[in-house]
Sequence to fold (675 residues):
Amino acid sequence: MREITYRQALNEALAEELERDPNVFLMGEEVAEYQGAYKVSHGLLQRFGPRRIIDTPISENGFAGLGVGAAMVGLRPIIEFMTFSFSLVAFDQVVNNAPNMFTMSGGQFNIPITFRGPNGPAHQLGATHSHATENFYASVPGLKVCTPATPRDAKGLLKTAVRDDNPVLVLEAELLYSSKGMVEPPDEELLIPLGKADVKREGGDVSIICYAQTVPLALKVASQLEEEDISAEVVDLRSIKPLDEKAIFDSVEKTHRVVIVEQDHPFCGVGAEVCYRIQKNIFDALDAPVLRVSQEDVPMPYNERLEKAVLPNADKIMAAVKKVCYA
Amino acid sequence: MQPGEQRDEVEMLSLMLLIRRFEERASQQYQAQKIGGFCHLYIGQEAVVAGAVAAVRDDDYIITAYRDHAHALARGTSANACIAELFGKETGCSRGLGGSMHFFDRKNHMYGGHAIVGAHVPLAVGMAFATKYRAEDRVTLCFFGDGAINQGAFHEALNLAALFKLPIVFICENNLFAMGTSVKRSTSLKQIVDRAEGYDIPGEIVDGMNFREVRDKIAEIVDSIRKEPHPAFLEVRTYRYRGHSMSDPASYRTKEELEKYRLDDPITRLRAQLTREGKLTNEQFDMLDKSAKETVLAAVKFAEKSPEPPLDKLYDYTYADGAIAAAVPPAGSDESAADTTATAGKRR
Fold:
């Protein structure tokens, strides 16, 4: 194991999959000559050449659709959105074409495509550039959605996504690109299955269920809670769809108390689905109502103080944990 | 078909007759409520797709919009599989899961059947991209209507195709109306082909009621693309005799206009050409027509007898790896077939 950044981990995943399979190519805005808007594709043009690392004009609908068409005839495209906020321009391709094709063709055309890029609010980018899209996309049958929070998960999930025979969205955490973590050496194949959550910290009193940018936040709160003698378990979903129900239920059956921390909006958010499944399946395991910490239900304000007020933070999580623990 | 080989024109006339009789029967079966949803007929436009398939190889890619029955038939999808699809049967070309607007036939290189106007044009560009990526000499034929040319996806796709020099023919089947809106009321240009110029793509206009003209023009374009990959644009001027869909009485146009085009019927025209040249007798024509009608009638019988897609396979066609990963039961509603496997196979 060695320590690398989330960005480097993604870069390694791309390079390894490009190396392994000649049908894989990377396409998007600024992925080649500019070396990636967030430098995730740094060095790939030099290594793999312009046939496989392809710059596009600013035409998200066009190049996302190009990817779907190429996947119909056997290629395995990796389509980078500069941010998933811009994927909304390609919503029709991601929602209507990629996931519907397999059904509509009666199973003749599966679409092995990876859509990837940063997702979720960053810092003072305003309403148009701060979308957390996981709940939109996870609601679409035929799509798979993962949200890595650590360099190791980022590498392992992206590599798995590229090999998956369905459209997979890898929603990277914009604020975590420079974060570091331990990852297996490059000569060791690292694949992390979709649909498997990961207990990032064990605990017995309360389950904090989180993903993506909320994972480091939850871990921070868990450490603080230790000082107050509350033992929090941090369950990182890693994949939103498929959802690892078993890992969620195992944790809740142990702690009997749940706080879900999500980076999307509360109405029809990821937490709503997780909460529904908990109460439906293990109602008797609960000792308190399930609480959620999410964004506030407003378009993201630019003002820094207001933005902070909109986002999940340690204080909000702490307060929710204390409520469910009646502490 | 091998390169340079000409398809037999009598065979292509027979295809046009099959398409027409198929669509007439589809119309009748729709009215008899055997077909659900939307149903868009191709009657009047037969020479376009027939001319196109006569000009390309069987392994060239074809993709179109929702008026797609003819494109599947032209590619060799059986009338049985097509009618069965309209009936929502498991023997349909998309297993009854696609319907009228989503005909697919991978074996015959028919890539759909796409119902969001303009949204398949980027897909076609992706198919052409794959061809060039693999250094194949295949050409992609992308059909769409005059309504598609005002969609953003269309413009983005044309730009990408030109930028990447992809082997694709954009074939605009200009039947003068996008649903009920005439081209004059939808498009700022005097002629649609001028859209291509904006992307530095060579464009031409061809008479879509004339099989030979369509075939020869597309053959010429495809020949040039195979020598050196590039996109091309063809505006094919045609006319649909029926409304936009089965629910459209087409009251936005005059009877006189319709009659004018009917007199220029593509089947009548090719028949006349062949008869004049001594390649077809009236008896032969009648035989072809009779055979087309019989084929379609037999297809209706086949579809009627075919089974519906089984309920217990509802989740089998959402993900290529079967039902969503075993760790996760699908998010079926609490009373759906997914949660109640005991009821699988029974009609609810």
Q: What stands out?
A: The longest strand of chain B covers residues 168-174. The first helix of chain B runs from residue 9 to 31.
